[in-house]
Amino acid sequence: xxxxxxxxxxxxxxxxxxxxxxxxxxxxxxxxxxxxxxxxxxxxxxxxxxxxxxxxxxxxxxxxxxxxxxxxxxxxxxxxxxxxxxxxxxxxxxxxxxxxxxxxxxxxxxxxxxxxxxxxxxxxxxxxxxxxxxxxxxxxxxxxxxxxxxxxxxxxxxxxxxxxxxxxxxxxxxxxxxxxxxxxxxxxxxxxxxxxxxxxxxxxxxxxxxxxxxxxxxxxxxxxxxxxxxxxxxxxxxxxxxxxxxxxxxxxxxxxxxxxxxxxxxxxxxxxxxxxxxxxxxxxxxxxxxxxxxxxxxxxxxxxxxxxxxxxxxxxxxxxxxxxxxxxxxxxxxxxxxxxxxxxxxxxxxxxxxxxxxxxxxxxxxxxxxxxxxxxxxxxxxxxxxxxxxxxxxxxxxxxxxxxxxxxxxxxxxxxxxxxxxxxxxxxxxxxxxxxxxxxxxxxxxxxxxxxxxxxxxxxxxxxxxxxxxxxxxxxxxxxxxxxxxxxxxxxxxxxxxxxxxxxxxxxxxxxxxxxxxxxxxxxxxxxxxxxxxxxxxxxxxxxxxxxxxxxxxxxxxxxxxxxxxxxxxxxxxxxxxxxxxxxxxxxxxxxxxxxxxxxxxxxxxxxxxxxxxxxxxxxxxxxxxxxxxxxxxxxxxxxxxxxxxxxxxxxxxxxxxxxxxxxxxxxxxxxxxxxxxxxxxxxxxxxxxxxxxxxxxxxxxxxxxxxxxxxxxxxxxxxxxxxxxxxxxxxxxxxxxxxxxxxxxxxxxxxxxxxxxxxxxxxxxxxxxxxxxxxxxxxxxxxxxxxxxx
Length: 791
Hints:
Helix content is 32%, strand content 14%. The protein is α/β, with parallel strands linked by helices.
């Protein structure tokens, strides 16, 4: 069986709290309702006996109407604009049939609130509690991971693990699968376009840790001892970079509905059971919902930072976890739902049949079957149209089917690390990486690299006070490879990964062909984040710019900017760089029409680019915005009144682009432009030159970069390296597995006399820990001068 989860989608972004852009992307069979003249589109449904002030905060954005379902008669003075209090008497007077089954049940009475909102024109319903307070944070809609055969327990997805909290689970996660469960990072995929999820769940902030349960091994039964998440999370927070994630069809995870948004296409699954214990209702209901979603070809999305937080930690104790028996039955429920197939074509019939089957298996009682029937009758009376069944196998986004250039979905992996009060402290990782690199260097005769190193606490303080290194933790490093990755990933990871917020490898990635077990290079580490680019897409580096366009689709949050470097570029990142501006080492230096312009990827591709902008995508508003930005930017940056097509086809040069930086504010424009360039087949160094002509950018002083392209000999890089260089290219790391070459470099550097003053400065830097990475670069990338300075 092929299944997928999904990592973040690029296109169908829908803010959790934006007004719903439109029903674009939703099938015509979505539930439609009768409208009152003053219909409201966005509703919040809560049950409450709590303070009015808590409830009033839910309407502070002004666009939301709130339905409050009370288990007593409504108090007359509770008349507030935008808030509809429904006491028991008001609920009865509404005349909904489901009242017969759910009245006076605080949880199941929500069904009345849903119907009340639907009757008044709701297109979106947010299921909440009155201890939830809305914030202005937006969780943007995203997309899932996948590919490969999955074991039964892999049908269960842990969203907290994906968000960096690997030892935490949502309430209702089947206990049987906790001990050895993993989401398996190699089964994710990244999609360029994906339908917006019609059910969107926002994970609450650290205040509401009711769904964060830690698991420890029990010495008695080798089972799971559940403890409160606050006690065991050690202050860990969801990664600030965490994107949304969408579960693909066939995947399940539990959620508590009190922080979930439902589109009208999903209103038919809003049903709340009436006979289950309170702790079980929401959990089993979420599994029931997911099965029905799969049958109509839809998915549920999870969003990392809530649009809300909980004032009261009312659900965080272990008493709120379901019993051992109920936990075992949850696993049975998931297995049953995964195997169950509906023989009917209408989703109404499937809903009723599934409700009946759950009753037969004692997951709920016959009263719930009756309630489901009454619920459906009420929806029909309100004029709702139910969505059609779909062959869900057509909707599975398996990466096994990833073929050809520009595939909509591709293999990818994103493993994030937790944070402590929104601080990233990787001092232990930095020291461990340095030690491992030092041992690797020692094989070539370099020793004494581990003397005078600071301890973890010292290094943490030193680096926290270094503005350059602190800023790097808010950036993403993208490392590209023109060819299938070889044995150097582990080396690159140790050199860079501890210092950047996220490090992502991009290029042709074939794990079955990657073997670093012979000891010539350090082994690959986890986390290993990658985006697979097909060989034909990368085409030996001709379209390397495409990588950052794919990274953009991850929809990482809170990123200051993106560094992009080829795997044979060395980046001395301790040198200060302005992170608010585009940086390219040389800019558009080669201003004539020589070189690549005579190739089909030059002038012919430029002409095709113009056709795409002016003909193929003439009516595409998104593409036309990019076209206008290109025209405006090109004219303003180059003081010309030429047309965009003339500017694009002008053979005005190329630029070597093995290292550059794009701030987050400019990522959308870069990515949209490069998508068109890629489709047209425009060569990397021409595409980057055209881009630079259209944006303000900075370049490096000649003394800050070193290019070993013609006529300079590549093999003498170690004689030209200095720590003050921002970048040097190329240094072929794959050659460093050859000890003969490394020893030859050592012998040549040995012939140089070290500067005693420089030796003193470098020694002090090592002692303070401010330049530990400089030593890593200068030693273990065979920047062997530092090895000769007698540390």
